[in-house]
Design a protein that fits this description.
Elements (H helix, E strand, L loop, with lengths): L12 H4 L5 H27 L3 H17 L13 H14 L1 H5 L15 H10 L8 H27 L3 H11 L9 H8 L3 H25 L4 H12 L5
Length: about 240
């Protein structure tokens, strides 16, 4: 099966960051940062025992070095997944933190990224890690969470762009816990002035659209078709075709 979920072409961030088009490079960097900054920050804190401020600095430094040292040019999709390669790059940076700290300015003078480190610190300090969870597994779990969160951010505009804004409102109520108690389909139909079948169809559309957005993100965040299949299984539970 070669189906529509896994088309043969896609623009990965690995390729886009090498593009001669500045807008394409910026878009790729935004996607990469959105998917990885929280996993990087938490990994540096939990595996390397860094405090909040140093972990935030090292996270900023990581993305600056990713570009300045062309780290993605060394990525070989035949040897590792992109997220594994990036985690190893983070480990290398953290291992040399003392040397990095001695520089006059982190990231070679690059403008700092606008990231919600305070929010990430609150989340991290509220949630104690499982006793048997390795730093590597925690990084993977946080990466999956970040991909899904990014997809959910994009879902409302994607549905509204198709004239299906009500589908997200239904999805928010039924799937995202927008209310303490999930309303029945009949209650939702009455609330929105639609039929029960419209509620069913709207929720089905929102779920399909979310899966499409996740797969589009994974097409960008992987370096090969095989890696795409593996990551789709990790995030969505879709078996490789």
């Amino acid at each position: 099966m070669t189906g529509g979920f896994f088309p043969p072409t896609r623009a990965s961030v690995v390729d886009a960051l090498r593009s001669g088009d500045a807008a394409e490079r910026e878009r790729a960097l935004e996607t990469l940062v959105a998917a990885y900054w929280r996993p990087v920050y938490r990994h540096v804190r939990r595996k390397w025992g860094k405090g909040h401020e140093e972990a935030a600095d090292l996270t900023q430094d990581f993305f600056a070095e990713l570009l300045s040292r062309h780290l993605l040019a060394r990525f070989d999709p035949g040897k590792a997944r992109l997220r594994t390669y990036l985690r190893l790059c983070v480990d290398g940076l953290a291992a040399n933190a003392a040397k990095a700290a001695s520089r006059q300015k982190r990231g070679g003078g690059a403008a700092p990224l606008s990231l919600d480190f305070e929010g990430a610190r609150e989340e991290l300090e509220r949630a104690a890690p499982a006793a048997d969870e390795t730093p590597e597994r925690a990084f993977e779990r946080e990466w999956v969470r970040s991909v899904l969160a990014l997809a959910l951010e994009r879902l409302p505009s994607a549905l509204e762009g198709r004239g299906k804004g009500i589908a997200f409102a239904l999805f928010e109520l039924c799937e995202l816990g927008a209310e303490a108690e999930v309303p029945s389909y009949a209650e939702l139909a009455a609330r929105f002035g639609v039929s029960v079948s419209d509620v069913t169809n709207g929720l089905s559309l929102a779920r399909r659209e979310l899966r499409r957005i996740v797969l589009d993100l994974l097409r960008e965040l992987t370096g090969s078709e095989e890696e795409l299949r593996l990551e789709a299984r990790a995030v969505l539970g879709i078996d490789a075709p």
